Amino acid sequence: PYFGYARQDRKSGSRTPISAKLVANLITHAGADRVLTLDLHAGQIQGFFDIPTDNLFASPVMVRDVRERFDLAKVMVVSPDVGGVVRARLLAARIKAPLAIIDKRRERAGESEVVNVIGDVAGYTCILVDDIVDSGGTLVNAADALLEKGATDVYGYISHGVLSGGAVARITASHLKELVITDSIQPTEAVRVANNVRVLSIASLIGEAIGRTAEEKSVSSLFD
Fold this sequence. Notes:
- 30% of the residues lie in helices and 26% in strands.
- By secondary structure, the protein is an alpha/beta fold.
- It has two domains: 19-57 and 204-223, no CATH class; 59-201, 3-Layer(aba) Sandwich (Rossmann fold).
């Protein structure tokens, strides 16, 4: 379900490849006749494929979990950067929660600095929503900034737990109350034993999508 190299969807500098297109070509030439993936970093990557491609969303699984665990009257959804506002807004709309945005500056890959928090988060339980957590630096810095602005607790709900290098240790030592990821990537032992990382299963979502595809039913209606 996790589509690797999705963050390399455009030529961002001299002599940099568009690896997402290469991977799409490799999958097609390997013999696939249809692709099911989850929360693409950029939706337009679907256009890189010459075969039918369905981009599923983890939001139904996450919304169900949030509704079961939180007092929604005290929840604010937060986008950790401007680029993720659409994703965060969709989840906020589903649970009828207000939305805040973090304005950040990225100095280099994997390192970011929070510049400003847009929205009054004081007194709210903040839920950071994003598609990928890699080094964990963005989430950790965002949690610190939100707590400084008066948030009561900060949680992260992220579709893909890449969690490279020392990310799990960084998350464990941070002020994040809990990081919730899906099993779109096989959880490592470090993830399984971390005391503030929890994994949600997307098996039922993927199974339903496969079943609908086999029966030639609508997949997109899963997210209406």
